[in-house]
Write a structure and sequence with these properties.
Number of helices: 8
Low-confidence stretches: 212-234
Shape: globular
Distance between the termini: 32 Å
Largest sheet: 10 strands, mixed
Structural class: alpha/beta
Strand order of the largest sheet: 4-1-5-6-3-7-2-8-9-10
Strand content: 15-25%
Mean pLDDT: 87
Radius of gyration: 17 Å
Length: about 230
């Protein structure tokens, strides 16, 4: 199996604790909740940062966890986390598999994170709608759910494009990441309504970049059936 190396910076202690609470909350979602879609309303709310750290923490806690990068339009994982391939390895991503240009085994990458495998996106696409409607996407996600305890699925913002709403029906639940103080209540409410129409469970909302009354980053929370807390620099 091919190998990817991630350079994931350590989180500050308080941020690490907040992410740990989110990880623990995942256990209370039930054994049937495996495929977890993570999205936001708008760009730059921190959904990919939340996704990558949740994936890493679940894997390090001993759960076999797969990360699926389905942000075909603007994936930032390779850039932001200095993802590198073994020398002479060809870049084959999920987009190749859905297009019928690769096999399932070709897109599963081992990583330097124990118990954490990665399904990347290497080639950005202007309009992936047709690919997202292909039956191979659903089949692959279901197969991943059979082989992994958790499947973390990073998707584009739902306030910009409909990709996440196409993917959501194939998932067991979703988490919405919100940039505190920037994303309006109206936009958040609309995003939740859109997700509810997919009939996928809202597992919770992560409020990102919250500042406390001393001007420092602090805890944030938004209640759904479950809630997560996250704050950080990105």
């Amino acid at each position: 199996m091919k190998q990817l190396h991630f350079d994931i910076p350590a989180l500050p202690y308080t941020t690490q604790e907040a992410m740990n609470r989110l990880r623990i909350n995942m256990k209370f979602c039930g054994k049937a909740t495996k495929k977890i879609l993570i999205t936001s309303s708008l760009p730059n709310e921190g959904k990919s940062t939340v996704s990558i750290h949740l994936w890493k923490m679940l894997a390090e806690a001993g759960f076999k966890t797969a990360y699926v990068d389905l942000d075909f339009r603007n994936s930032v994982i390779k850039r932001d986390f200095n993802v590198t391939l073994d020398e002479n390895e060809e870049e084959i991503g999920f987009e190749n598999y859905i297009s019928g240009l690769a096999e399932y085994e070709d897109i599963i990458y081992k990583t330097n994170i124990e118990n954490g495998d990665f399904i990347p996106c290497f080639n950005l696409l202007e309009n992936p709608a047709a690919l997202l409607s292909d039956s191979r996407l659903k089949e692959a996600l279901n197969r991943l759910a059979e082989e992994y305890r958790y499947v973390i699925i990073d998707t584009p913002p739902i306030g910009i494009v409909s990709d996440a709403l196409q993917i959501a029906p194939y998932c067991d639940g979703n988490i919405l990441v919100i940039h505190a103080g920037q994303t309006s209540r109206k936009i958040v409410t609309e995003s939740i309504r859109h997700l509810e129409r997919t009939r996928t469970k809202l597992l919770g909302v992560v409020l990102n970049r919250v500042e406390n009354n001393k001007g420092h980053h602090g805890y944030g929370k938004y209640y759904g059936k479950y809630y997560g807390k996250y704050y950080g620099e990105k």
